[in-house]
Amino acid sequence: xxxxxxxxxxxxxxACHTCGKLARPAPGAHEGWCPRCGASMHFRKPNxxxxxxxxxxxxxxxYIPANVLPVxxxxxxxxxxxxxxxxxxxxxxxxxxxxxxIVVFVASVVVPLAKIIALAFLNTSVQMRSTWQPVQRxxxxxxxxxxxxxxxxxxxxxxxxxxxxxxxxxxxxxxGPAALAFAAVVVLTMVAAMSFDPRLIWDPxxxxxxxxxx
Amino acid sequence: xxxxTPESDNLDRVATAREQPKSRWSFQIVWLIxxxxxxIGGWLAVKAIMERGPTITVTFQxxxxxxxxxxxxxxxxxxxxxxxxxxxxxDLKRVVATAELVKDFSPxxxxxxxxxxxxxxxxxxxxxxxxxxxxxxxxxxxxxxxxKHRASFAGLETPPIVTIDTPGREFTLRSHNLASIxxxxxxxFRKLQAGQVTSYQLDKDGKGVTLKxxxxxxxVQFVTTNTRFFNASGVDLKLDASGxxxxxxxxxxxxxxxxxxxxxxxxxxxxxxxxxETPFRLxxxxxxxxxxxxxxxxxxxxxxxxxVRGLAPGAPVDFRGVVVGEVxxxxxxxxxxxxxxxIPVDVNIYAERMRLRSxxxxxxxxxxxxxxxxxxxxxxxxxxxxGSLLTxxxxxALDFFPQAKKAPxxxxxxxxxxxxxxxxxxxxxxxxxxxxxKIDRLPLDEIARDARTMMxxxxxxxxxxxxxxxxxxxQTLQSGTRLLQRVDVEVVPEAGQMIVDARKALVSADRMxxxxxxxxxxxxxxxxxxxxxxxxxxxxxxxxERNPSALLMGKxxxxx
Lengths: 214, 560
Description:
- The complex is a heterodimer.
- Chain A has helices at residues 48-68, 85-94, 98-127, 134-148, 153-164, 177-195, 199-206, and strands at residues 14-15, 22-24, 31-33, 40-42, 72-76, 79-83, 171-175.
- Chain A is α+β, with helices and mostly antiparallel strands.
- Chain A is elongated, with a radius of gyration of 22 Å.
- By secondary structure, chain B is α+β, with helices and mostly antiparallel strands.
- The radius of gyration of chain B is 60 Å and the shape is elongated.
- Classes of the chains: A alpha+beta, B alpha+beta.
- β2 of chain A pairs parallel with β1 (15-16) of chain B.
């Protein structure tokens, strides 16, 4: 898909991310401060690809303990048990709450993983200056950004349960170490999605070299 | 600083951004995030690997109450692990539970470490594992003492009765059968519960049962090499030569079965504490158990020709009421020489009980043989006697029968034959038989014939007496009568006169001798005179004795 008309980059202009002011960089420079609001300005998000990779790698690393370590430790007079995300899903599934099991599974397992894969794919394609399906890739990026915050669902659930169920001898629930890792994964993928510059998807079509600034 | 104009399409009017000094760091800093997360992740991974305990497999008959990821492994109610998977083994015979334990427990996973599933169960009169009704079953562990490490175990189907750290000791008992004992049955000492039966199993040859009993700490010291274990299950009703005997240990053992142990007086025998290896027998009852130890027994064979119905192995051999041995076996033999059927009875005689121990046992067997020879010479014999008329049981009695036929001992044969004498029953039978035989031998026909001829001749005799003697006899009687009549008439009056005269003479004599009669009085005064004369004479004699000179000089005048 070729873009109609010129892009800001083509005209040597940068848009301020904060106030939307267009400005030209100082001669010889690729970035600067917004003349109106003083925010940092650049043609493309600086080091976008590198940052995205770094954050993605961090979230992949943390995704492992998030799924392996127990996410919730509940103890009651009937004994104590620790649950990982997956064992919770299995428990819900076995005990017949299929919809809940599906919700938790999708929100806590599928979505973070899908986000990581999607971002990795986008980043790779940008790095390789791929011209394949830019519209679809942009749409994918939007979905990733949109969904990001909802994968915090089970962290919310745990937070609520920990706050509510503290009946000392009878029953207590504590967040396990995986909760932290999981929250970190969610945050990191969100930040990674933010640090990704979707304009880079289009640069190869415009024959811009946006990566020089990314 | 450029001023803003509405013509946005005029690119020349676009403001210029203020210059930023180039920062070399900005693009490096982002890599701290994955590095830190990698460090955290790596640390977690290392920690997990470091803390990862041993994984073991335990097999069970069934997986009742076992749940992967739920069932815990507990040692003394402390959680030491978790069942990770429950699967079946290849031939579907057993359930394999894979459990991950804490690292610290690793050194205790040895060959004799035991695993079992704690479920609510009622056994041996006790209820256990009730807490698992709420919390779910768990796998219990008891550590072993072996040094060999192991990772796969065969789980016990029932919890062990005693754990390895229970103070006490285990002993092994051999028994003919299990009676009513079960694992968990109590072991009593002086009717106190001193332990429990932990397990039992059939011997490989199927000829007995081996039981393991555990005796708790304060009681272990009372188990010596001389201790007897006996079955104290329920009520023991015994009917034997000594009558009916009922034994009962306790109500608990009545319901559950039980074993009791007791240590008989050690007659100076050296007694040491028993170890786990000490072999013990489980006696069927207390009486059996407390029999004197068969330390000094002499084996003899008693050969009876009479029926031994009612004699059983175990019947007492009794010497005037003291049990000195017992019947071991009863056989039946045909004597090849005579073709007679004989019944050899093997007996054990406990020499100790015959108080031979001190004098004989210590000596050489020759001395003992000589001693027994002497006893047999004096008439020591074995005899079958009826112990109880109610049951018809027999026992063997040893006693002296001085009239018994001489029976020398043959010490060459082993076991030696001790001579016997027929029992009382048999003697009676023999006596009756001999009387019957004598009666048989009587010539009754001849006797009858003789008697008949005798009767005939007697008859003749009587007839002759009747005809010939009787008339003469009558004449004799008549003349006798006449003689008596004559005596009556002629002699009797004369005799009466004579008696009257005699009476008169007696009366006059009587008068003469009466105390007031003159003859008597005269005689009395005469005697008094004589007495006086004798007195005077004695005086004179005394005087003369004092003053012999008076005969010559005359009587002196008494000086006034």
